[in-house]
Amino acid sequence: MNADKAKVRQVLDGVKASGRNALTAPEGKLVCDAYGIAVPQEGVATGAAEASKLAGTMGFPVVMKVVSPDILHKTEAGGVVVGVNSADEAAAAYHQIVANAKKYDAHASILGVQVQQMLKGGQEVIIGAMTDGSFGKLVAFGMGGVLVEVLKDITFRLAPATREDAASMLDSIQAAEMLKGVRGGKAVNRSALQDLIVRVSQLVSDFPEIAEMDLNPVFASEDGAIAADVRIVVNFEPKAPRYRPDEKDVVTAMNRIMRPKAVAVIGASSEAGKIGNSVMKNLINGGYQGKIYPIHPKDAEILGYKAYKSVKDVPDEIDTAVFAIPGKLVAGALRECGEKKIAGAILIPSGFAETGNMEGQEELQRIGREYNIRLMGPNIYGFYYTPSNLCATFCTAYDYKGSTALSSQSGGIGMAIIGYSRSAKMGVSAIVGLGNKSDIDEDDLLLFFDQDENTKVIAQHCEDLKDGRAFAEVAKRVSKNKPVIMLKAGRTAMGAAAASSHTGALAGNDKIYDDVLRQSGVVRARSLRQLLDFARGVPILPTPKGENVVIITGAGGSGVLLSDACVDNGLKLLKPMPQDLDAAFRKFIPPFGAAGNPVDITGGEPPITYMNTVRLGLEDDRIHALILGYWHTIVTPPMVFARNMVQVVEEMKAKGKVKPVVASLAGDVEVEEAAQYLYEHGIPAYAYSTEIPVEILGAKYQWARAAGLL
Amino acid sequence: MNADKAKVRQVLDGVKASGRNALTAPEGKLVCDAYGIAVPQEGVATGAAEASKLAGTMGFPVVMKVVSPDILHKTEAGGVVVGVNSADEAAAAYHQIVANAKKYDAHASILGVQVQQMLKGGQEVIIGAMTDGSFGKLVAFGMGGVLVEVLKDITFRLAPATREDAASMLDSIQAAEMLKGVRGGKAVNRSALQDLIVRVSQLVSDFPEIAEMDLNPVFASEDGAIAADVRIVVNFEPKAPRYRPDEKDVVTAMNRIMRPKAVAVIGASSEAGKIGNSVMKNLINGGYQGKIYPIHPKDAEILGYKAYKSVKDVPDEIDTAVFAIPGKLVAGALRECGEKKIAGAILIPSGFAETGNMEGQEELQRIGREYNIRLMGPNIYGFYYTPSNLCATFCTAYDYKGSTALSSQSGGIGMAIIGYSRSAKMGVSAIVGLGNKSDIDEDDLLLFFDQDENTKVIAQHCEDLKDGRAFAEVAKRVSKNKPVIMLKAGRTAMGAAAASSHTGALAGNDKIYDDVLRQSGVVRARSLRQLLDFARGVPILPTPKGENVVIITGAGGSGVLLSDACVDNGLKLLKPMPQDLDAAFRKFIPPFGAAGNPVDITGGEPPITYMNTVRLGLEDDRIHALILGYWHTIVTPPMVFARNMVQVVEEMKAKGKVKPVVASLAGDVEVEEAAQYLYEHGIPAYAYSTEIPVEILGAKYQWARAAGLL
Predict the structure, then answer these.
(1) Which parts of the sequence belong to the ATP-grasp domain (chains A, B) (predicted)?
(2) pLDDT of residue B235
(3) Residues in B touching A671 (Cβ below 8 Å)
């Protein structure tokens, strides 16, 4: 991109020198010109011939306005002529304006006549940029006028934005259709709009002191896009960037923390009911195979393990220290951990930022930075990492190993994760409490789980992102490899207010989170249950190879609801069904079974009908994913259906036909056992729900599309 | 409302006589004038003085146009003058137009000059009316231009609409804010718009032959609302109205069917596995106390009951006949039931409309009508009515009696209802299969359950409403007494296509269903699980007395998600919390607990903190509903929390303080038992979900508002 950075620097220096925080219109034009941002051409003529010439170079029509410090109401003074269409008209207009102005005020100082390119309608849009506390520079695009004001029809991306980002912005607004031409209007020049978005986003990225920028309105037409008005606000005292350790160091430290050779428990206790006792028991009973060092001021032995007065007294290296002591003792013990070169401190104790004790938390951060020790928490339940059989927490031990890594900002949500995981037999690789996030946060976890061969899906609950930009940058890379799912709480204004009183964090504008998370390839869960259902189902589904989804159902009624759910979740039903495929399905189903998609095999069919149709669905390469609707009958009982489906899926897998399959089971309580059996054999299945299995398939698709796999 | 019906009749007769299906512009104006629908005033002047006078009566400015059959391009001929502002200008314009026209074409026949009221901008809106296959006459309102074209920002109501309906339409569109004035504009005259909507809706109701009507655009301003263009399409062959029995007869027949003194099983069988055997067993084992008459061509006794060859051979009166015979035998047996004066035939057999056999189904309808016997089905699983201990179905018997009456159009969904009901211990009064709905449909059930003292909530699944208008009219009355909840499948275009191939029903435009169901006070469930959760939770919640909701939570993280859910479900958190109330809550919670709403009691608190805060929430009359967020800890285990909450709620109930309370439980698997205990004691509670309990409370509120109880 051609950009005259020196020119912009010069303008900004001038603004800074004059102590202003906003640019004048001419300064704004200079900046736009330097970055190739189209604004109306303009100039001042001091004679009729010059006016004609100026107008000729910028192209007709033009608008002409008197330039006089003494005339405030130009129109009233007869000092404005619009729609000047030729060189002759320009000359005539010059004379007329000067004459009118003199007549209006004989003593007025007339400096000349401004000639400005006249914008020809088109579609009014808005392009802007802003600085977000968490995400930094953002570029915005929306429709002008009431659509942005009343309907808040606007979309955001991290700046700088690529042309692809810009294209996605044009498609993301509600009124996207308008850019394609409505009521016989012509489509706008998309390329010109993309260009403008990219340039604005580059400008604010190159010059962080540009805090806000508004091109409003931009007139977009089939010919191009021109900003009719430019507003630039600057801030020469931008906040210091947040400290970010080197990514390699993050991974090294996280590996030591999550797969430690030795763990110290600071505040270990022999007394049942104490947190330091629960942590010791969980480490031992969880099956952790490394060394365990209880730390206690007096006791010589705790639960059969030799205890030490300080980590510094332990003869071996220690990787992870779990803190189970009162908050006021943490800083001292943390310093000792630093001196001992421990990689990570798991700070269970509370009494820091969440109670208003900011100083206490900042002290811990300073010590952590000084000794290069990473801090998890404070104010957390600890963490589980199942491949190490590590339960570094006071909560009860996990039951099901698996491939989903979960984390939560809130302890309560963490407990819900643990309970659901056990109840729904969701296999987890890790559950991590982040609490006050004084140091380790979501992007540190992403970096670790990205390279963790035991983790296939990363699912996170958060209330705020302390450094949204760092998260987005890491998530964009990681989500190319593994699905990243997020439940962002404080979605609504009301929720955000609660978040703010809970963690002291300023919850961001949810629309920004929504757009940036999507830009980063993150799948957003809309509710706690959805986070949990996604975390459970997405990792066991194979990645689809295409968009064609087919519903095969024994219950016509489920077929309708499953179709609804497909639309709700952005899935595309293969429609119309190719004739030969339709005919092939028809061979297996009764003559009154419904054609097309859903394939309605009808209610009273034996297991073989389900098997034949599902086998065909898996075999034919034009079909990329299956949604099954089961109806409980005496002819095909739930467990018979479940076993048969698993058999067909495995039979086809052996032939290299691997596709995502989800199932909705309608029937009496026996369908619950069948749903669990299907899940345990790679088919996310739910009883009494047509929507949840489709939501899970939708999440897998959303991820695969964002990762460029479709 | 003043309306000149005779005038409209005269115009429509003229249109009919001339064999047209649309009205001309002057005809449209006559119709509008007859119903007081404001259109621009206009008249033709044949002299300058007359032009001045005409213009004066309609008010300035006016537009003047030449009237000549010979001049097609009026503007080109200089035959149009806009913005005529005074009587003098009108006279001058008259002369000028005539002169220009003569100059343009000396031979043109000039009939005069049309003087038309000139509309002064304002907001462009659309008001229309249409005829829907299921709902009949509907009135529509939307914003004009791109908002309706691109964003489909339009809303519908049944016609005729009341002024209150019309007011709700103005508030229902996405861009409602625009009517209140944006960008410094003035608010439109709401009363004038309401008036226009009411008049249009009355017109199409009075004259069913008006199939469509469009006022587009209507210019709405602070002064009033005038339709700039009117289009009326007529259809003189409207379809015959659907047969509707008298409501008293419906209730009488339904009472005989649901609470029969005697039931016949046509096709009863001793052979296990046969439908006629399952039905007999379910009647017997379900505990039905009336008489059971098996009907069988040969057997003398079935399962210990004397069998008859025909219902006509049974000596006593029979109320309900359950059919378990092949489809082709149904018509003959139904005729015998008719002769026996049986009230209702439960038509389990399939092979009718759902397989394309329309004639077969129509034959049953004819017989039903002839003998005044009501038909349930065909193609159904039958029904349960628990107060009669009646399982007139081949499905397994129910487990939990209660106060929710459910129905489903689809058999598969019916099975899901039965399974969920058993699994979640949802108490039901009835589960009814409606299948092909050849006769008995949703509004028949509403009429019965409305007067059924055993039913508190009615929850229905449907794919189409055969007679949406009848349903809406009944639902509007019934929903004033009892919540009516509906899962309308085929919501989306894709789902609707599936519905159509499934039942042969033309699924309506979902937006119409959405608006009309709301207008009728029906709460719409968005998914199968939501239908089931609402059916389970809504009946046990007391009706709130006001809008002020308070969240009391032990988990701050749950508080944020619960707040999000409140916004999503239209609940209003009491904010700001009155100072004295805030202070009163603070007395019970640690100093770092969060102020306001949510009341964050913090995580480590003992049971007494939950009890004190919840007691206060129930006691204070400024609070109308409570949402509890529980966090599983050792200090307050799940069942301790559950028992304590029930104790406080019952203690306060004894003092007359009855409020809806729902709970979200975050914790390990023990919270599931606690959730069930809470539900069984009147508190809908869910483990691992912050959204479901709030959705249930939201449904109760939505109903209470629509029923005028808030």
Answers:
(1) 29-65
(2) 93
(3) 419
Write out the residue range of the structural domain in which residue B520 sits.
400-540
Residue A153, both tokens: 């029809």
Q: What is the pTM of this model?
A: 0.92
Distance CA A462, CA A464 (A): 6
Contact: A688, B419; criterion CB under 8 Å:
yes
Q: Is A619 on the interface with B (CB under 8 A)?
A: no
B459: in domain: yes
CA angle B556, B559, B561 (to 5 degrees): 120
B410 and B510 co-located in one domain: yes
Residues B549, B616 within the same domain: yes
Alpha-carbon distance A573 to A623, whole Å?
9
For residues A334 and A283, state if they share a domain.
yes
| Residue contact A410–B150, C-beta within 8 A | no
**b/e B39-64 (16+ beta carbons within 10 angstroms → b):** bbbbbebeebebbbbbbeebeebbbb
Query: Is there a single domain that holds both residue A154 and residue A182?
Result: yes
> What letter represents residue A677's amino acid?
Y
> Is the domain of A552 the same as that of A627?
yes
Is B560 part of any domain?
yes
Q: Which CATH number goes with the domain that contains B131?
A: 3.30.470.20
Q: Strand ranges (DSSP E) for A291-441?
A: 291-295, 301-302, 305-306, 320-323, 344-347, 374-376, 382-385, 390-393, 401-408, 428-433
First to last CA, chain A: 30
Chain A partners of B534 at a C-beta cutoff of 8 Å? none
> What tokens appear for B203 in the block?
């017109």
Determine, yes or no, domain membership for B535. Answer: yes
Is the minimum CB–CB distance between B287 and chain A shorter than 8 Å? no
Model pLDDT for residues A84-114, shown as the tens digit of each residue = 999 999 999 999 999 999 999 999 889 899 9
Our count of domains for chain B comes to 5
**Whether B690 and A527 lie within 8 Å, measured CB to CB:** yes
Q: What is the pLDDT of residues B37-51, one digit of tens each?
A: 999 988 899 999 999
State the ipTM, two decimals.
0.91
Please tell me whether residues B228 and B245 are part of one structural domain: no
CATH classification at residue B342: 3.40.50.720
Domain of B445, CATH number, reads 3.40.50.261
The residue among B179, B560, B592, B692 with the most chain A CBs within 10 A of its CB, best to mutate, is B560
Tokens of A84: 């000047």
Across the interface, whether the CB atoms of B419 and A632 are under 8 A apart is answered yes
Interface contact B146-A498, CB threshold 8 A = no
Q: Which band of pLDDT confidence, cut at 50, 70 and 90, is reported for residue B52?
A: very high
Tell me: do B182 and B113 sit in the same domain: no
Query: What beta strand segments (E) does A506-598 contain?
Result: 523-525, 548-553, 572-573
Tell me whether residue B388 is in a domain: no
Chain centroid to CA B465: 11
